[in-house]
Design goal:
It is built from 4 helices and no strands. It has about 130 residues and is mainly α.
Length: about 130
């Protein structure tokens, strides 16, 4: 799962950069997926270890970071959509797409990690 973490880190970093450059490099909040991607990338790199305890520690930290990112992105996507529609304006499509994409990527990652943790527990590797 450490290598999968690196892949999701790269995807989130690319999403952050695309959102930032896609908005004309004006909105620094578009870089939020980049920071989550860097955090997951660092955690994934640290999880590549022969030490089982170190690997488990960093993978649990990674899934916690991803879960917090998923919750934050989901709340912000819903909040932004509701705020815009209640004001009678269309929501910012780029921001909404970025938040939803970040939430979906992190949800997929969290589900994959939980399934991996369950499989490891059942196989007796833990």
């Amino acid at each position: 799962m450490a290598k999968v973490t690196l892949v999701f880190g790269v995807l989130l970093a690319a999403l952050g950069l695309a959102g930032y450059l896609g908005t004309g490099s004006i909105h620094f909040t578009a870089l939020i997926p980049l920071w989550f991607g860097l955090a997951l990338g660092l955690g994934g790199f640290l999880a590549i270890s022969p030490s089982e305890n170190r690997r488990k520690l960093f993978m649990h930290i990674n899934v916690t970071v991803a879960l917090l990112g998923f919750i934050g992105a989901t709340v912000e996507a819903v909040r932004g959509y509701v705020h815009a529609t209640s004001a009678g304006m269309p929501p910012d499509q780029i921001a909404l797409a970025s938040k939803v994409t970040m939430a979906v990527l992190l949800l997929i990652y969290v589900v994959m990690c939980v399934r991996s943790f369950i499989a490891a527990r059942r196989s007796g590797k833990v």
